[in-house]
Design brief:
CATH topology: Rossmann fold
Distance between the termini: 33 Å
Strand content: 15-25%
Largest sheet: 8 strands, mixed
Shape: globular
Strand order of the largest sheet: 1-2-4-3-5-6-7-8
Number of domains: 1
Radius of gyration: 18 Å
Length: 293
């Protein structure tokens, strides 16, 4: 029923969209210059027709973020959701540089292995920053860019460079705490009822994967995604910016900054919505993406 590389807790999922996504998760060995060993990369691919649309999740998250959005896009479009290097259920090969540049390289070789045609790239939160970085690094791959409550204007905290053991493991233990994760989940939504038990399970499944702590510490110590600044003016792709009007995670000020900094961009506000429009308002979010494509 479920792939054997998924944690056994996947059996506890209860919502149909969560179960359906879990049943469609696949893995592909991706050869990259990052390591002599191929990286077993998890993804979901659904739909035929126009596309491809590629979805990138946020920080300390996974492709389960797209359990509600992906089926709506895949009705008439080839749609992919990918677990970024160091995150989700993608293999965390020992010794890899879990950094933004490594994430872009891994994503490029995934694209080259399985997709190999220009894509519409959609990034949520930190995934938005990853999408910006990828579009700047490999502009020939990305034909359109969609940012959903995206990171990319805030500078990363300086604490990352101090995350050596045991401090690093204390930090990840804090993030693993179910009460902390539930508080983050509640803050991500405008409608707090959506922070259900099933939502919490979806958000925590990847914590059971080998080397979760080590990869998260390494990514944080790399500096993560910070302020793109003047680089945003180099984005040549038509760009759609979707932003929840009630975002309590990143706030709302950066939405207008992105629109101003990216030449060919359009900002659309999602009413009565928090930081995760793709989970809170999936039908509206999907329609805006399809209208833009």
């Amino acid at each position: 029923m479920f792939a054997n590389f998924l944690p056994y807790l996947v059996e506890q999922l209860t919502e149909p969209s969560s179960i359906a996504l879990a049943q469609n998760i696949q893995r592909q060995a991706v050869a990259t210059p990052l390591s002599e060993q191929s990286i077993a990369t998890t993804y979901v691919r659904q739909g035929e027709g126009e596309g491809p649309i590629v979805l990138l999740h946020g920080f300390d998250s996974s492709i389960f973020e797209f359990r509600r959005l992906l089926p709506l896009l895949a009705a008439n479009n080839e749609t992919w959701a990918i677990d970024l290097l160091g995150f989700g259920f993608t293999e965390r090969v020992a010794g890899l540089p879990f950094s933004p540049s490594a994430i872009a390289t891994h994503l490029y070789y995934f694209w080259k292995t399985l997709i190999e045609q220009p894509i519409i790239l959609v990034g949520t939160s930190m995934g938005g920053a990853a999408a910006i970085d990828f579009a700047l690094t490999y502009p020939q791959v990305v034909k359109k860019l969609i940012l959903i409550d995206s990171a990319g204007f805030a500078k990363p905290p300086a604490i990352g460079k101090f995350l050596f053991p045991p401090v690093g493991y204390l930090a990840t233990s804090f993030l693993r705490n179910p009460k902390i994760r539930q508080k983050i989940s509640i803050n991500a939504y405008h409608d707090e009822k959506l922070a259900s038990v099933d939502a919490q399970r979806c958000a925590a499944l990847h914590l059971e994967m080998p080397q979760w702590s080590e990869a998260l510490i390494a990514f944080t110590k790399s500096g993560g995604y910070g302020y793109f600044g003047e680089k945003l003016a180099q984005i040549v792709q038509p760009t759609l910016i979707l932003w929840g009007e009630r975002d309590r995670i990143l706030g709302t000020a950066d939405a207008g900054k992105f629109e101003k900094a990216i030449a060919h961009s359009k900002l659309i506000w999602i009413a009565d919505c928090g930081h995760v429009p793709h989970l809170e308002k999936p039908q509206i979010t999907a329609q805006h993406i399809l209208d833009f494509r």
